[in-house]
């Protein structure tokens, strides 16, 4: 009697649920693990007992039965400062959380920038710890996708790899023609073309760009869109009008200084992220350029930063939260071994016109 009272005062057990429900222990286990091999009456009795006792399944024991951990990892190859300080990452996490809301999957977040961080993360990314992995902000030499493939862990990338450009897709089949993978991306090249076309339509002819990192698909695609749009407008190719940043505000400021030193007569700049555009606007103001009268500026993302700059930033809207939701949806499909029409999702962009252009 003493043993039974002590046990009841602690965490309820599977046997106690079975006794209260008037069923066998195996029936309770099948209900907890989602098996359809239970009668409606027995299932209802078990569920009432679970609620009454406050029973919480032992995740480790459940994993032995289902071979699932009910956990997924979001691995971001950036520093904590950037992950928690830049709006893009917060939007992605909100979208992923929303996409997982109706599933039993729990999300854990890991930063993997330093060698020590990467070693810890790589050690943890096994089927004993997670059912799948979401990868964000990958650089082209990152070994994680190959490692996960070797371990047969489902993975979805946020953003197309730099080595895989749009022409590598076979639209009719829905499959990448080479270097394939499961990923979610936005139409980065198309958004860049919209931005430059807007500047051309406003009469700008010496249009510069602050491009992003060229070992990331997003940086490659937005620079490609800029080149395509300037060529379509009949503007001469001029490498002096191209500078590079890493999507941070300080790098945007540094790139803007380089452009002004090389081409002080530039009259517009397309910047591959809103944060870099904020840095560029600061330098233009410091050097006495009026925006947009002297230099028009267009960014990319349509983050909260774009509404807070002086003047408010014309920018390309990308659906960041939808991107996160799509990443979660594709990963759940992979974990469930479903076959969606295509293993990737490409989201549309559009221009949001404000006072900077």
From TrEMBL:
SMART domains: HTH_LACI
CDD domains per UniProt: HTH_LacI (cd01392), PBP1_LacI_sugar_binding-like (cd06267)
Keyword Nuclease: no
Coiled coil: none
The keyword Transcription appears for this protein: yes
Residues of the HTH lacI-type domain: 12-66
Molecular functions (GO terms): DNA-binding transcription factor activity; transcription cis-regulatory region binding
Name of the protein this chain belongs to: LacI family DNA-binding transcriptional regulator
Organism: Natronosporangium hydrolyticum
